[in-house]
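Appendix B, Record 12. Input sequence as logged:
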Amino acid sequence: RGKGRLFLDTANTDEWQELLPTGIFHGVTTNPILLERAGQPCTIENLHIMAQKALGMVDEFMCQAWGSTAQEMVDCGMQLSEPARDRIVIKVPVTMEGVKAASLLIQAG
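Logged structural output:
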């Protein structure tokens, strides 16, 4: 069987400080709703800062692209992953536009 990977699903960096040192999490994952709940701006710049912080503690940072069209989500996803494409994983909403964006993001590597 494959190796299981657990992700801490929060944008609350205080929770990161408390829970990531346990060593059981492979990464951190978040989305626009979790960012809002944690009082974090849902911006490319802020997510780059958060990714840098998370990647200092775990192997992967997962965040959700946003936009109303597939191309907007692709552009957002490419910008979000730019600092570390091998360690920043982009999620998309499960909508028709999100599925189109996922296909384009996969093609872009």
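The helical segments are 13-19, 32-37, 44-55, 70-81, 96-107.
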